[in-house]
Structures are given as C-alpha cells and as structure tokens.
Design brief:
Number of strands: 0
Strand content: under 5%
Number of domains: 4
Largest sheet: none
Order of helices and strands: HHHHHHHHHHHHHHHHHHHHH
Distance between the termini: 180 Å
C-alpha cells in the first residue's frame, strides 16, 4: 500500500506539530543552538535564521517546518556529530590535563619524600647536637668545678707559701745585709719572720697538719712532671750533661739501648732519693731538737726515739721516691719489652737477663718495692721465658743436624758453634759479681738441655762407624765443649760429667789398641783375664814375643791417635797403652821366672838372662 505525497506531507506536519508542542524540548534545542553559536560550530546565517523564528503559534511553526523538513534533519545530524566531536575533544583535553596532574602529583610526592628525608636528617642532627651540647654542658660544669677547685688550691698554696716561705724582697734584704755593716729594721723584721717560720715548721711536723700532706703531694707531682719531661728528652733529644746523643738512636743495639735506659732510671732514682732525703733531713734534726728540750735522764728512750724518727722519715722519703718514679715505669716497661721481642739470639737474651738482674739488685737496695722494680722484674721474667723458647730451638737445631764429619774426625761444625756460644754465655755470667738466682737458673737450663742434646747427637752421629772412629769422634766433640767449659767455675758440674765420659772413652780406646797389638802376635787367646799365660805349651811364641818386645815397641805405631785433636789426650792414651804393655811384659817375665825356678827342664835360666828386665822395658816405653 503506497502513500501519496499529500499523506506524507500531512504525517510530517502532524509529527512536527506534536514535537513543537513540547516546550522543554524546544527550550533545550534553543539552548543547544546558542551554545553552538558561541562555539562557532555552524554558520552564523543558519543560526540567525533559526533563532529569528517565532514559536508562539503552533500553526505558523508547523507551516515553517513543513516547508523545511530536510534542513532540520540535516541540522540535527550535524548537531549530534558536532556534539560527539566536542565531547571527544573535551575528553582528550581532560585526559591530557589528568596526565599533567598525575605528573605534578608524582613530582609533588618526590618533593615530599625528599622533604621528609631532610626533616629526618635534620631531626637526627638536632638530636646529636642536643646530645653533644649536653656533653659539652657536663664538661663545662666539670671544668668549672675543676677551675674552682684549682683556684681554691691556688689560694691555699699561696697562703701556705706566704706562711712558710720568704718572698724575693725578704731574701734580697737578708743577702744585702750580709754586705753592709749597718743593720736596718727590715733585717730584724725578716729575721723575726724567719723565726716564726721555724716555729711554724716545727708545729707542722709535730701535728701532721693536712697542709704537710698537700705539700708532699705537690712536690711529688712536680717531680713526676719533671721526670716525665726528662725521660722523653733523654730518649728523643740530647741535653747538656747527659748522654752524647739521644738513647733512641741506639735502639738497634739492644744491649746498649737497654743498658742506657736502666742506667738513666737508676740515676734518676738516686737523684730523687737524694732530693727527698735532703728535704726530710731537717725533720730529723728539728724533732731531735724538740725532744732534747724536753729530754729526761732516760738516754736509752731518747736514742730509741731518734732511731724510730729516722726510720719514719726514711719510709716517707722512700714512698715519695716511688711515687715520683711511678710515672716512668710504664714507658720504660714498654721500651724494654720491645727490646726483648727484638732479641733473636740466645746470647743477647741471656745478656738482657743479666742486665735486668744487675739493675734490679741495685734498685732494690734503694727502694725495696715499687713500680719500677716490679717492671724490671716483669721484664726479667719475660726474657727468661724467651730464653727457654730459644733453648728449645737450639736443641732442635742440634738434633736435626746431619751426620756429616770430616775425614780426620775433627769436631763437627755444630759442636764448634755450640761450644763458642756456651763460652760467650759463661763469660757474661763470670763477668757479673752479683749474678742472682735467675741468672744461675738460666745457665743451668741451657747447659742441661745442651749437654743432653749433644749426647744424643753424638750417639746418632757415630752409629754404624767403626769402634775406633766412633770413640775418636766422640772424644773430639766432647773435648771441644770441655775446653770451653773448664775455663769457667759456673760450668764445673757439667765439666765433671764430661770428664767421666771422656775418661771412659780414653780407656776403651787404649784397650782396643792394646788388644790389636796382642792380636798381631796372636796372644789374646793364650792369655787369661789377668794377662797370665794359660799354659806353657806355647813357650816358643812367648819367648819370641818377649825377645823382640823392645824392637816391636820402637816399630809400634799409633796412627789412629793422630786424629785426636787434643795433644794431652793423645799422650794419656799412649801412656795407658804403654802401661798395659809394660804390665803384660812384667807379668809374663815374672810368670816365666817362677816357672823356670820350679821346672828347669823346660825353661833354662840362660834364656831368662837374655831377656831384658822389666825396669829396662819401662825405660824403653817411656822413651818412645
């Protein structure tokens, strides 16, 4: 069914008429058009044309829209597209603004974090500042109290000095009056003040006033400061009247360096003792004078009181000397301890022990006990411990030495070095007239350990050697030690022990040589233990032996004895061999003589007359 154009026109007109009857929609459309005009989205002509329309009459409006239905549709389409485009642009604009805002928010967050960290650092800084300020305030309060205390002490010291010491002007008055004949009133005034000072000093000593203790403390502190300054000056820079150069420059020479340190300390101790004794010497005289004024007939009590007073004053002086020297005890101990650690030779360590022993005894005579004496005693103990360790190392070196010896069986190099080192150590001990128990203990430790080590070394060295070579090598090694030890009284005990071993080896060597001589004649099996013939069956052999005995003695050679180093030992062994040969000849001669007297058929007296007498053989043996 198709509609005619008239019907279509009527339908549109009715729809437009119905649409225009809705006033809110018209007002909304007008507002939308005004917005579009302001934004310039459509042509001004179209906008003016639409805005000039009068919507007061519905019929008029319907006729208008009926004539222009197509432009309105186009307008509505354009408006929708324009609105959507505008919404898109607004959304893009909002999105870009949101991105900018987000970036600014992030920047703001970073700034806030940075500000927070700075605030935290500032807070910690303020906390530390407050803490340090609190410490500074506490230190300031302490210094203020200390200042007040020092000022108070200074005031008391000035009052004390004003009471017990003359001023420079008063001293000048006394000195000037010595050169003039006239005596002024000022002189008597000063002398009167001197008398008052003497009375005050007597009262001070008698009453043990606290000012006296303060004076002692002040003097001891002053002497401590002076000793500290002198100690470091002595060690670092030379002063007139003392060492030619600073002691610190001798640090590479351990013994000399320690000796100079201890000598300076002993000198300082003597100086301080003289100083304090000179101060308290007047105390003894004053108190003795005070007792003499009130003396009684009891002289014994008077003398006992004087002795007791001297003892008390001496005790006070020693106490002050110890206090004055306490300040240098620690640096002295540190320097000496460094020297002990730097000692790599057992001889140097033993010299240090001897040095400590010497100065410890000298200082103990002055002060029985004190920090200085304790420091030296501690250093001596440390040196002794080091000596024990070095002795064990020395024993290990001897034990690990190789089995090497010269062809002439002379003393091995390790034994020669050991003997020289022992001799040097014993020289140090013998040079000290006041060697204490620690020094003798050290030398006993060394000699016991080395003697045992040398015996083990010699036993290992001669293993698998012939008996004669073994005895000769042992003799040479031990006599190399014995030659050095016999020069020192301190080593007499060990020298005696070596003598026993050496005598045993001499006897063994002579017996071996004597038996070798008998084996040459094949006589050992024919003789008993007493060197007597077991029977007379071998008369011809004995007679030939005794007949040729003088010539055999002359031709007898002891070539192996030439390898013995000590000439005295060689002669002793030759004498032992000759004595055994002489005894053998005498025994055989006497035995054959006795046999000839009882049995003249077997041995004739004429044969005995042809033999030399034992006395002649003895003379021949001595001349060889």
């Amino acid at each position: 069914m198709s509609l005619s154009p008239e019907n279509d026109r009527d339908a549109v007109r009715l729809r437009v008429h119905k649409l225009l009857q809705s006033r809110p929609e018209i007002e909304s459309a007008k507002s939308l058009l005004n917005t579009i005009i302001k934004e310039g989205l459509i042509a001004e002509s179209v906008s003016n044309n639409i805005s000039k329309k009068h919507f007061s009459s519905c019929d008029h409006d319907a006729s208008y829209f009926s004539t222009s239905a197509d432009p309105l549709v186009e307008l509505r389409t354009t408006l929708r597209a324009t609105l959507e485009k505008k919404q898109l642009e607004c959304a893009k604009s909002v999105l870009s603004q949101l991105k900018i805002s987000l970036h600014e928010i992030r920047t703001l967050s970073a700034s806030v974090d940075n500000l927070h960290s700075q605030c935290t650092a500032m807070k910690s800084y303020l906390t530390e500042t407050k803490k340090s300020t609190g410490d500074a305030l506490v230190e300031a309060n302490r210094l203020r109290y200390e200042k007040e205390s020092v000022e108070h002490e200074l005031t008391q010291l000035r009052e004390f000095l004003h009471r017990y010491q003359l001023s420079e002007e008063e001293i000048q008055i006394l000195r000037s009056e010595e050169k003039t004949v006239e005596v002024s009133d000022d002189f008597f005034r000063v002398m009167e003040r001197v008398q008052q000072m003497k009375e005050g000093c007597k009262d001070l000593i008698a009453s043990e006033n606290p000012n006296l203790s303060y004076c002692k403390e002040t003097i001891a502190s002053a002497r401590q400061s002076m000793l500290t300054e002198r100690f470091f000056e002595m060690h670092t820079c030379r002063k007139s009247g003392e060492f030619l150069r600073p002691i610190g420059m001798q640090a590479q020479e351990i013994i000399r360096y320690c000796g100079n340190l201890l000598a300076w300390t002993h000198q300082a101790l003597v100086t301080e003792e003289d100083f304090f004794n000179s101060i308290f010497e007047e105390d003894i005289n004053i108190q003795a004078a005070m007792r003499s004024e009130d003396s009684t007939n009891d002289k014994c009590n008077y003398e006992l009181a004087n002795v007791e007073n001297e003892r008390n004053v001496q005790t006070k002086s020693v106490n002050l000397v110890e206090r004055a020297l306490d300040v240098i005890a620690r640096p002295l101990h540190t320097l000496v301890e460094q020297c002990i650690s730097a000692s790599h030779s057992i001889l140097t360590t033993f010299k240090l022990i001897h040095l400590f022993s010497h100065y410890q005894e000298k200082m103990t005579h002055l002060i029985s006990d004190g920090t200085i004496v304790s420091a030296i005693s501690t250093c001596q103990s440390q040196a002794f411990s080091l000596l024990e360790s070095q002795t064990q190392s020395w024993v290990a070196v001897i034990g690990s030495s190789g089995r090497e010896y010269s062809p002439n069986l002379a003393a091995t190099p390790i034994i020669v070095d050991t003997s020289h080192t022992l001799a040097n150590i014993l020289k140090v001990l013998e040079a000290s007239p006041n060697a204490n128990e620690e020094c003798h203990k050290a030398i006993t430790l060394i000699l016991d350990a080395i003697s045992a080590a040398v015996k083990k070394y010699s036993a290992r060295l001669v293993d698998e050697m012939t008996p004669i070579d073994a005895l000769i090598l042992q003799l040479n090694n031990f006599q190399c030690l014995q030659v050095q030890l016999k020069c020192f009284n301190a080593a007499s005990k060990w020298n005696t022990l070596l003598d026993e071993d050496v005598d045993t080896w001499k006897t063994k060597l002579s017996v071996i040589a004597f038996n070798a001589y008998l084996d040459r004649w094949e006589l050992r099996s024919l003789l008993s233990e007493e060197m007597r013939p077991k029977s007379c069956e071998h008369y011809d052999l004995f007679s030939r032996f005794m007949r040729d005995f003088p010539s055999n003695l002359i031709l007898l050679s002891f070539s192996h004895l030439s390898r013995i180093a000590q000439p005295e030992t060689r002669e002793e062994i030759r004498s032992l061999i000759a004595q055994q040969l002489e005894n053998l000849y005498t025994t055989l001669y006497n035995h054959l003589s006795a046999t000839a007297q009882h049995d003249e058929g077997s041995i004739t007296l004429e044969f005995l007359r042809d033999l030399r007498a034992p006395q002649e053989i003895k003379t021949i043996i001595q001349s060889i």
